[in-house]
Amino acid sequence: RELSLKERSLSGTATTRDGVEVAIRANIELAREVPDVFEYGADGVGLFRSEFLYLSSAGVEFPDEATQAAIYRQVVSRLAPRPVVIRTYDLGGKKGARHLSGAEENPVLGLRGVRLCFSHPEMFRTQLRALLSVASGGDLRILVPMVAGVEEVRRVRAFVEEARQELVERGIDVPDSVPIGAMIEVPSAAVTADLIAPEVDFLSLGTNDLIQYTLAADRANEAVSEIYRPQHPAILRLIARVQDAARAAGKPLAICGEMAADPALFLLLLGLGIREFSMGPRSVPLLKDVARCASAADAARMARAALSLSTPDDVSALLAREAEALLSGDPETRAAVNV
Ligand code: PEP
Ligand code: MG
Questions:
Q1: Distances in Å between the alpha carbon of 24 and those of 71, 211, 257?
Q2: Main-chain phi, psi angles of 47, to 5 degrees
Q3: Cα separation of 107 and 284, whole Å?
Q4: Which of 310, 311, 267 is nearest to 289 (CA)?
Q5: Is the CB–ligand 1 distance for residue 207 below 6 Å?
Q6: 260-284: per-residue pLDDT in tens?
Q7: How far apart, in Å, do the first and last CA atoms of the chain sit?
Q8: What predicted TM-score, i.e. pTM, was given to this entire model?
Q9: How much distance in Å is there from the Cα of 172 to the middle of ligand 2?
Q10: Which ligand ends up closest to the CA of 206?
Q11: 81 preceded by a cis bond (ω within 30 of 0)
């Protein structure tokens, strides 16, 4: 019997036709989505947007350390030994928390993500203690949003050290090295990824914001949706640059932006050297299948060609032409991908 797409995705990691292994993880917002991670066969959680702990409580109160720890522990231990990447609060910008950031004329360029955490150190320390206290229960990795430069990574590391000390003084077992990663979603971080990579344990490209900030086009504004294009040469060059920096430093690089769930763009990212992806759980089976039908060498040729083009339309046209040929081996995937 032929296996369905979903059954195939459940049968472990995806390997391309030429033997390159890729991990495809899930993006989740709440602990109650953990069953979806299993159901759709994701290789762990690549992005847990922890700010929804707060946002889903109608923004009333921050969960205290014990409440947070119970939620993180549940996710980390149920998914063990699979990795679980928990992002520290990415509040501010368009995500609530006015009482923390204050009134801002331009909140998306204001106290958002790690900046807001620095300005509310007790809130940040509480979250870091809750995270570190559950790290021994599985493969927890901590991801920091909105990093703009390496000095912020150093500041985060100091916070983490302080939180670890407090836990150790309480007699709580904290593993020596809980991986700390930086989201690359601000152009200055992408351009200086070579400076950031040596000081973190992993990088994760947040292309939803990287595209918005690089192209100066609000990700949610219909009026500029024609400008907001993942295929823009600036985005391709930045991703290639970040990939080079990660490889040079020997650090893993993942992508957790929405573009990874588009089959043609997924092949482009594979061609640019990305090996770890994360996306909404429901997209995982199809993209695992795309990975299994693809050749990483052919994808790399396509990515090189894409990098030589001048406009988003030229890149889109190339992807439309090439993606079909790259998936030639598998009619079912081609039909599902609609190329
Ligand atoms: C991103 O910016 O690409 C990302 C994954 O984070 P969010 O969509 O939560 O901003
Ligand atoms: Mg983001």
A1: 23, 21, 12
A2: -160, 115
A3: 33
A4: 267
A5: yes
A6: 999 999 999 999 999 999 999 999 9
A7: 26
A8: 0.94
A9: 32
A10: 1
A11: yes
